[in-house]
Specification:
alpha/beta; Rossmann fold; five-stranded mixed beta barrel; 8 helices
Length: 254
């Protein structure tokens, strides 16, 4: 199967590096590729935009996944068939603790499985956890870049508007009660892909982690336009790339 063109991402073995960054937004994939030494567009199909290049001589790819776990897990499946074995989600999230401020980074140790894709791989009792090598590399990368970061649990969900406008949903009582529970248990942020990626990676025997840029936090006062303009994706991209370098360094050490 590896030598065949993959149905959704339109890539095959040899097109993809061992280490892959996974943004949701195709536009972010284009942006990430500009940080590579020699990034080249491999394929552009549906929500999947894929580049491969190098950073400091290390082969690296980036592939966008679109929004949500179903499309993200398809990407992990097909990229693994192409030879990838280490994935880092590079996304955005909403902070759900007051200490998690817009512009901060959240490194996911694990994710609440409030999504529907992972149960097709593992029962809910199986935890969605990141690979410790990837978590440690992202922490070290954050320290090197000098950004504010937090490490902990994220909430992965399927419904953007169920999260942001629960009062107008028929299931509003349940949605609000569950969200209250996530907050009281110290969950740092809410996003839409980590749990599916982590579960699929566990099932496939590959490594995965995730780092998210906090784009906003409804527990805090609204940002001014000037404050919003200061939040950029560059730091999270730099941290993810440093993470790849450190994982690769560990892989090359006997």
């Amino acid at each position: 199967m590896a030598d065949r063109m993959q149905h959704h991402i339109r890539c095959k073995e040899g097109d993809i590096a061992r280490y892959v960054l996974l943004p949701g937004d195709p536009g972010r994939a284009h942006r990430i590729a500009t940080f590579f030494d020699d990034g080249k567009l491999v394929a552009e199909s549906r929500e999947y935009v894929t580049y491969t290049g190098t950073v400091d001589g290390i082969p690296i790819s980036v592939a966008s996944t679109g929004i949500g776990c179903p499309s993200a897990v398809i990407a992990v499946e097909e990229l693994t068939k192409c030879g990838a074995d280490t994935f880092i989600r590079v996304g955005t999230a909403g902070g759900i603790q007051e200490l998690v401020k817009p512009g901060d980074l959240v490194i996911a140790q694990g994710a609440i499985r409030d999504e529907g894709t992972g149960v097709h791989y593992m029962p809910l009792e199986f935890p969605a956890i990141a690979s410790i090598e990837v978590v440690n590399a992202l922490v070290a990368g954050s320290k090197k870049i000098g950004v504010n970061y937090h490490v902990g649990i994220v909430h992965t969900h399927d419904s953007f508007y169920g999260q942001h406008e629960p009062d107008r949903m028929p299931m509003h009582d349940m949605l609000k009660a569950r969200q209250k529970a996530w907050i009281e248990c110290g969950t740092l942020a809410s996003e839409m892909e980590c749990a599916g990626i982590f579960i699929a990676a566990s099932a496939l025997g590959v490594r995965a982690g995730g780092v998210c840029l906090v784009a906003g936090n409804r527990l805090l006062p609204p940002l001014s336009e000037e404050e919003r303009q200061k939040i950029t994706e560059d730091d999270i991209i730099k941290v993810a790339i440093e993470g790849v370098k450190l994982v690769a360094q560990g892989d090359s050490t006997p």
